[in-house]
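Board notes (copied after class):
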Amino acid sequence: MPMKSRGFSTIELVIIIILLGILSVVAATQLGKYYGGIKLENATMKIASDIRYAQNRATTTQKRSQVRFLTSTTYDVRYCTSYDATAGICNCTGTWEPARDPSKGGNFQVDLSSDFSGVTIATIVGHCTEFDSLGRPYYNASCTDVNSCNSSLGATVTVQYSGESNKSIVVQIQTGMVSY
């Protein structure tokens, strides 16, 4: 007696399709959470790296540099052409010029919304973190105030993804060590 090949019934196929649909919805939801976390992590690394760049630029060129946080998604790196080095005064007497972006060329300005949509800078907007020729950080609340060369202040930059999760970048007082 020849054996009959038996396929799947319509009910079995419908059940399999429903189960695959449920699994794909659950997987997509979890993947979305991980994707957001990856974006947040990468944006945080980018900002921390750019802060380190400003610090390294200040020490190698011996010109005061700053990271200026313009909006919740944009910032730039600039340097002072000349400043008053009198004890207790760190006033830029020249102009703040845009630094050159080593990876893309042109002015060093970053717009997070182009590469990291949904990621924002939640704190420090409108403020600057400056570095002197020794790499010491100075927090500048208005990007125009005269800062004391005798008081090195660190800063904390909070980076956020879609208003839910966030990470902090800390610039240590005195040493300028950048960590997140």
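Comment from the instructor: The mean pLDDT is 85. The helical segments are 10-61, 112-115.
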